[in-house]
Write a structure and sequence with these properties.
The chain is built from five helices and eight strands, in the order E-E-H-H-H-E-E-E-H-E-H-E-E. It has helices at residues 30-39, 42-49, 58-65, 118-132, 147-155; strands at 10-13, 19-24, 72-80, 86-96, 102-109, 137-143, 159-163, 166-175. Strands 1-2-3-4-5-6-8-7 form an eight-stranded mixed β-sheet, sandwiched between helices.
Length: 176
């Protein structure tokens, strides 16, 4: 496992004036990640994980927070609460494919933070990091019914392709 990439930490101001701290996830963030997922609406959880769930199973939670920072990088966006704690409001990640030239991304933003510019900020950051690390393309799988995400992907320059073997899923992809 690579060392924690502190150089990826940054604080940003969103369109609506709220400030977030973006940083790589740590294994010690498991409880914060679980709280984040529990707080999402059932629809947001379903569109992200493509299954109905109320919280993350232990194995999935470990997968999402115990990353190697090279082949699997995840960034979290947090806000500072009134008591000084960090509260997760979004995340974006990529996982490098076996060929080492492409990666699959995923993004998740708290319902109360959607349309704030956070999703775009997270995606541009993760795409920049992937490109800087030599990856050539990025792709993701999106439910065909998730019109908001498909529109967002188009705005980011992703092409779209329906999957022949799964018409309910759309592959979005772009060069970096």
């Amino acid at each position: 496992m690579a060392d924690y990439p502190v150089e990826l930490e940054r604080t940003r101001t969103l369109f609506d004036g709220r400030r977030v701290h973006i940083r790589p996830v740590r294994a010690s963030d498991a409880e914060m990640e679980q709280d984040f997922v529990r707080h999402l609406s059932p629809d947001s959880r379903y569109t992200r994980f493509m299954v109905t769930m109320n919280e993350l199973p232990a194995g999935k939670l470990k997968y999402l927070t115990d990353v190697d920072y090279e082949k699997h990088l995840a960034l979290v966006a947090t806000e500072q609460t009134g008591d000084g704690r960090q509260h997760q409001v979004g995340s974006a990640r990529y996982v490098v494919d076996p060929g080492g030239k492409s990666c699959e991304f995923a993004i998740m933003v708290d319902d109360d933070w959607q349309s704030s510019g956070l999703a775009g900020m997270l995606m541009f950051t993760i795409m920049d990091v992937a490109h800087a690390r030599g990856l050539e393309s990025m792709e993701g799988l999106v439910l065909a019914s998730n019109h908001k995400m498909l529109k967002f992907a188009r705005q980011l320059g992703f092409s779209q392709q329906r999957l022949a073997d799964d018409p309910g899923t759309v592959r979005v992809f772009r060069k970096l």
